[in-house]
Design goal:
By secondary structure, this protein is mainly beta. The chain contains three helices and 13 strands, in the order E-E-E-E-H-E-E-E-E-E-E-E-E-E-H-H. The strands form three sheets. Strands 1-2-10-7-12-5 form a six-stranded antiparallel sheet, with no helix packed on it. It has a five-stranded antiparallel sheet with strand order 9-8-11-6-13, with no helix packed on it. A hairpin with a 6-residue loop joins strand 1 and strand 2.
Length: 180
């Protein structure tokens, strides 16, 4: 089995594609292999696994992250449907500080996205009944949870759809300049 790691413009953020082994039963694919991550220089240990199910196309969640010392990396994949996922670099010493990228994750493409420590992520569903699986490098810590408003003009993400559902908590998130 082979996992292909495609670098993005944000250091440490990778789009990952697993090789599918197919036969008359369907397919088999590896979605995590610590050894293959380490070959890419990625030290990722799974501490928690989360699922997110979203019923309505256009649902927007994020930008979410945990503050130090509970920074977390995430490896995300779509189980059902499709997602527009955005990552913003919050690492002050990074050459891509405050820059963002996006990747479309879908059950059809069977791709994954590694969000490195020091970055926040948000996503918007591109289909009804979309489900995401997250592998987390850190345990959830309510006192360290934080986020940035998805409308932050200094980040300037161009969401593909008008948001249909956004939680009141996410609407109330501060702009990045308020956190710095």
């Amino acid at each position: 089995m082979v996992m292909r790691f495609g670098e993005t413009k944000l250091a440490g953020a990778f789009e990952i594609q697993s090789e599918l082994r197919t036969d008359e039963r369907g397919y088999f694919a590896r979605i995590f292999c610590e050894e293959e991550f380490q070959k890419q220089g990625i030290n990722f240990h799974i501490r928690q696994v989360n699922r997110s199910f979203n019923t309505v196309k256009g649902t927007l969640r994020g930008f979410h992250f945990q503050k130090p010392p509970k920074w977390e990396a995430k490896c995300m994949t779509a189980l059902l449907g499709a997602f527009f996922v955005a990552i913003v670099d919050l690492r002050p010493n990074s050459p891509t500080f405050k820059q963002w990228i996006s990747v479309e994750l879908s059950a059809e493409k069977k791709n994954m996205l590694l969000v490195p420590v020091g970055c926040a992520n948000a996503f918007q569903t591109l289909e009804d009944n979309s489900e995401m699986l997250y592998f987390m490098s850190e345990l959830y810590s309510p006192e360290h949870q934080s986020g940035i408003n998805y409308k932050d003009p200094d980040i300037g993400v161009m969401w593909p759809l008008e948001p249909t559902v956004v939680s009141p908590k996410d609407v109330a998130l501060p702009m990045l300049r308020e956190l710095l």
